[in-house]
Amino acid sequence: MTAPTLQWNAFLETREEVLASWPTGRDVRLEEGLAVQRALPEERRFATRMREAREQRALLLQPRAGVSLVDEHIRLLRYLETEGGADLLPTTIDAYTRQGNYPEAARGIERSVVASTSLLNGFPAVNHGLAECRRVVESVSRPIQVRHGTPDARLLAEITLAAGFTAFEGGGISYNIPYTKRVPLERSLTDWQYVDRLAGHYTAEGAPINREPFGPLTGTLVPPCIALAIGILEGLLALEQGVRSLTLGYGQGGQMIQDIAALQVLRELAAEVFGERGFPDADVTAVFHQWMGGFPPDEAKAFGVIAWGAAVAWFAGADKLIVKTPHEAMGIPSKEANAQGLRATRQVVSMLADQPWADPPAAAREREVLAREVRAILDRVLELGRGDVKAGVVAAFAAGVLDVPFAPSVHNRGRVLPVRDHEGFIRLFHPGSLPLPDDILAYHRDRIAERARAEGRDIGFAMVTDDIYAVSKGRLVGRPR
Amino acid sequence: MTAPTLQWNAFLETREEVLASWPTGRDVRLEEGLAVQRALPEERRFATRMREAREQRALLLQPRAGVSLVDEHIRLLRYLETEGGADLLPTTIDAYTRQGNYPEAARGIERSVVASTSLLNGFPAVNHGLAECRRVVESVSRPIQVRHGTPDARLLAEITLAAGFTAFEGGGISYNIPYTKRVPLERSLTDWQYVDRLAGHYTAEGAPINREPFGPLTGTLVPPCIALAIGILEGLLALEQGVRSLTLGYGQGGQMIQDIAALQVLRELAAEVFGERGFPDADVTAVFHQWMGGFPPDEAKAFGVIAWGAAVAWFAGADKLIVKTPHEAMGIPSKEANAQGLRATRQVVSMLADQPWADPPAAAREREVLAREVRAILDRVLELGRGDVKAGVVAAFAAGVLDVPFAPSVHNRGRVLPVRDHEGFIRLFHPGSLPLPDDILAYHRDRIAERARAEGRDIGFAMVTDDIYAVSKGRLVGRPR
Amino acid sequence: MTASRPPTLVLGVIGSDCHSVGNRILQAFFEEAGFRVVNLGVIVPQDEFIDAAIEAEADAILVSSLYGHGELDCAGMRERCIERGLDDILLYVGGNLVVGKTPFDEVRRRFEAMGFDRVFPAATDLEEAAHLLREDLQRRRQPAAVTA
Amino acid sequence: MTASRPPTLVLGVIGSDCHSVGNRILQAFFEEAGFRVVNLGVIVPQDEFIDAAIEAEADAILVSSLYGHGELDCAGMRERCIERGLDDILLYVGGNLVVGKTPFDEVRRRFEAMGFDRVFPAATDLEEAAHLLREDLQRRRQPAAVTA
Ligand code: B12
Ligand code: B12
């Protein structure tokens, strides 16, 4: 087993290439970035706020938001602070930047200036560069995170962390498999080791950077065992590079008991596994994402989905909640719609804040099954890598031991097919090559068979399609019409 | 004990006076009304749909709605059918008509025609008269109910039932104490015996009329024991006059466990008490009202309140849900806002429809305490009336054995003062003269003391005021600022 | 009004309106804030407000209307006050004053045109209202020359 | 195109767009509906659509764009088709085509102006779309005289 932490010198060598890859990279100085980070007051530090949330059993709300131009972006963030009451702020990066296509992003900026409206689906941080990013950070009073979907986020991380962003979403799996088509896993994992090493360096030097693997993956009927295994693996990869503040995520599946069980298992198993692998000091928190699949186009119905997600996040005991908006099915939300999503969510969460919650009995069973599933997958991945996490992940995807439903990447087998059971739980219809125990596979089969009987039809892609559409059409389970 | 069912001849005598009290009364013919009612298809009969909902474990959605003019009212109802997807329709009556002030209602109609917008807060059914009401009934395809707040609803009932409305809300307590100032209870109870006798006659003649006591009362921190006792008593009064289809109601209090327990106890105790008192054939269903207190003015937050109410109604196993709108804090909702409330609610309810629910353990304790409270009140009321329900109710209000917080009626003692405990449960701060067992009063005191300690302040009217405002300001418990 | 006794308010919910919760709170609030409050409760006709104001030598009448008929119920109230000799009594009104969601500026205009001195939406900060009330009363006490 | 073989569609998600779920469903749906489908998946440049259409002798190209850059990514696509010899290939586009909630008529206008034959919102009934596609293809097969 090779020492997984990147050597500092090797890191610095790569770093030169990274910073040279686009003109704005030249402005970045590590020491300057550290100074900026260290000077931040604690209430604007993501890691601190997340830890406090866990300790105080609070649930912090965070929107997604990003537009083409800097001033407009600042106005948007301020609006979400004041009118939305966001506890934590984002900067969502546009899709050209995510693919490293800075020339296209530049064109998008120009055309946005001409059209005097944002034509990009996010904030092109790399093109705007260090000083402008710093202006964003300085314009807000809440901790602020970079949210994106970038397989090679090295330059983006260099610029934004030096600018004072204190949290950075993503990982070598979760920002590759659901977001790209041909990027090899080996490459994205290596590039993300770089990002984690950078965040680890900041951490070691007194400026902890919060890192958050992207839990929801494709957002579409993802069986919890797959999401949890990937989240924990990405957590391990980050810890290996010196990251300590970790927020593991899970996207609402829609079945309350399953969602609650999943977030709890995620917390428990992560603590166990990180401890076993030598990271008992990992500072782990949990983020819940309101429904990540297709939304109902009707705004009133969207509010229903949003509010219900808020309630489940509370029941599940999340520390942070990523909030959707009533525009979700339509397009990038206006700032007003974004703030509406936040306020609807806040109302539910704070009406529940004082109410005790006791898990329904069925949650225990789901927790047990799920914990065994995740353990089985993790064991097999680490076995394949002979203890090396990165190697294990690459081998696991090749073997279908990790397999994300509906993902676009050609490096994902795509053999797993999920479907809901009669009670709405996401189950495995085709388990692909997931290394799950036989009794558990039988459990999935039985639960699905129950639904097939009740609906009087065979299980098949039609049923899966119905399930994909269900929430957008006002149900959870896609019953036959 | 006198035979409580009104004698038919005495009823007919009174009836002449009632019909003569306003010109539109002259058009009403009982036989004609019966013919209209009997001719209705079953899917437009309230009693049938409510029973089916209970049997199929469905949750039917009903809005509130009523405007000054007939055509506009019909357009509104149709919109709520098609765009709102309402299962059941209302006709909410304006406040002048509720007080029997038909001349003012007439002025309101005239001025509405001139202003070409509704200046009344509901539909003045008595002024419009039989033929126009029939036109309303015939214009819709769902069962339709009269919803109001009228202490003397005899003429309103004569006209609307003859017109083909198949359900009629209210009762001699619930449409007096929260809705009027000086109307003696004895009078409103007698006038409602008339209404129930009329509904009982329709029922006996093959046209069951659904009757629904108004469960939420003042909608403001009503301790469940008071609401449940009154609902069951009004149910008894209706059964005595021959009503068989009864929908007992409960307004969301905001504490999930308490709300769920309350609706369950309401169902159980009602069945028990009705059986004991000789009405084992009562066809009882349960209606849950989304939050009836002050709403947040912000529409997004209102959606949060609405959606959470929808979830709790589902958990509580209600058969019907009365839906609020995002305009609640602002004014009578536009038809669009009304339909939005319905759609947000539908989304939540149907996303939950397939999910099993198991009550949290704490619900059992609340159920037990609540059942004992309601029994204690009912026993005392019946004792005071020496078995006669009406007499018992009158005596009970005089003695403060029944006492509705914040009610405007001078015939209500107004000594009971509720406040939330630390977990949001509505408890008794001042029990007034409610005849509750000592251990239960101690339980209330202890739970409230816990909150006072946690907040470091004394219990008092300031705390109650904070609780009254809380939901409209985005919380459940009114914590000190 | 003499300087020694606290200013007196007549409070009530006009017309056929039964909304009693806000009324209770207003009474408690204004008493706490040092006013003498004559609370008529709900379902109060115009003349009952005026009778009470005359009897109590009140400085202001605070009308609430929540249920939507505010415009119908309040029409002519200022004229009626004058007719009955209350020439310059302060008239405040607040609540959900008209039927349906309406821009508040529009609502204010309509009620000011009816002769109300101040108009408040339901979501009113009561401290703010009490502050304005004290100011308005102060202004009336002082001779015109001083305020002009 | 000969009458005997099923009409051929080239399908894909244009630009840097990774939304793969709708794409999977579109493929399954149109295959089930009797079309031959060449599915290029996500992140497809304009030229890749055109290459595939030429190679497969396709009757129509179905472009998806979900992520908001549709306008930027689709600009010039019709011209490029013509340039590469696909003179009258059917061009359909659908999804969340522009950034932000926009009235669909406006969106349709913009994409029709770019030369797309039909424009679909995300909430499209696919049966309806397939029906239109069959009609459009039918019309192209028939000699102009017959349709005119
Ligand atoms: C799931 C999802 C994701 C997943 C995608 C996983 C994956 N690999 O597929 C993840 C989380 C990774 C993701 C990422 C992003 N997403 Co996204 N995503 C969604 C979401 C919630 C559902 C999409 C979905 O799967 N729907 C279900 C399928 C069945 O429906 P569909 O995709 O609409 O496809 C149907 C129709 O569009 C139609 N159709 C499509 N094309 C065509 C073509 C023709 C000819 C016809 C007839 C019909 C047709 O038929 C399809 C089948 O029914 C939507 C919002 C929504 N719809 O609720 C946002 C949404 C599409 N995403 C959006 C954005 C912006 C992004 C990001 C850029 C992040 C960001 N800034 O917020 C990144 C994209 C990065 C990239 N490079 O592309 C925006 C697009 C905004 C806009 N257009 O203004 C949306 C609308 C959300 C929003 N309101 O902001 N997303
Ligand atoms: C509880 C409630 C009821 C209870 C009332 C019980 C009771 N006896 O009090 C019940 C269920 C019985 C009820 C009945 C009806 N209600 Co109601 N009710 C409400 C509700 C939900 C809360 C009211 C409340 O208690 N708020 C809490 C208190 C503290 O706030 P408040 O009443 O607004 O009072 C404060 C302010 O207004 C302000 N204020 C008031 N007056 C004044 C005066 C001055 C000078 C100042 C400075 C301030 C001020 O200070 C008060 C204290 O903070 C409101 C909607 C809402 N606000 O969410 C509807 C609402 C007021 N009701 C409404 C209606 C129409 C009715 C009905 C006619 C039924 C119907 N058609 O829907 C009947 C009325 C019958 C009648 N004769 O009056 C409408 C009014 C519509 C409009 N104006 O366009 C509302 C707005 C709901 C809606 N959107 O449709 N209601």
Explain the overall architecture.
The complex is a heterotetramer, with 2 copies of chain A (481 residues) and 2 copies of chain C (148 residues). Chain A is of the alpha/beta class and 481 residues long. Chain A has one domain (8-352): TIM Barrel (Alpha-Beta Barrel). Chain A contains 17 helices and 10 strands. In chain A, helix 7 runs parallel beside helix 8 (154-163) and helix 9 packs across helix 10. Chain C has 148 residues and is of the alpha/beta class. Chain C has a single domain (8-141), classed as Rossmann fold (3-Layer(aba) Sandwich). In chain C, 44% of the residues are buried. The mean pLDDT of chain C is 93. Chains in contact: A-B, A-D, B-C. At the A-B interface, helix 12 and helix 13 of A face helix 12 and helix 13 of B. Bound molecules: cobalamin (2 copies). One cobalamin sits between chains A (64, 92, 95, 98, 121-122, 149, 178-179, 216, 218-220, 292-295, 327-329, 331-333, 406-408, 468) and D (16-22, 25-26, 62, 64, 66-68, 92-96, 99-100, 120, 122, 124, 126, 129).
Low-pLDDT segments, ≥5 res of chain C: none
Structural class based on helices, strands and sheet pairing of chain C: alpha/beta
The CATH architecture term of chain C is 3-Layer(aba) Sandwich
In what order do the strands lie side by side in the largest sheet of chain C? 2-1-3-4-5
**CATH class placement of chain C:** Alpha Beta
- What would the CATH topology of chain C be? Rossmann fold
Secondary structure tally: strands of chain C: 5
DSSP strand content of chain C: 15-25%
CATH class of chain A: Alpha Beta
Are any ligands bound, and if so which?
cobalamin
CATH architecture of chain A: Alpha-Beta Barrel
Q: End-to-end span of chain C in angstroms?
A: 21 Å
- Overall 3D form of chain C: globular
Strand neighbour order, sheet with most strands of chain A? 1-8-7-6-5-4-3-2
Based on the structure, what is the oligomeric state of the protein chains?
heterotetramer
Q: Which of globular, elongated, flat, extended, rod-shaped describes the shape of chain A? A: globular
Mean pLDDT score of chain A, rounded?
97
Annotation field: number of helices of chain C: 7
Could you tell me the strand content of chain A as a percent range?
Answer: 5-15%
What is the share of helical residues of chain A? 40-55%
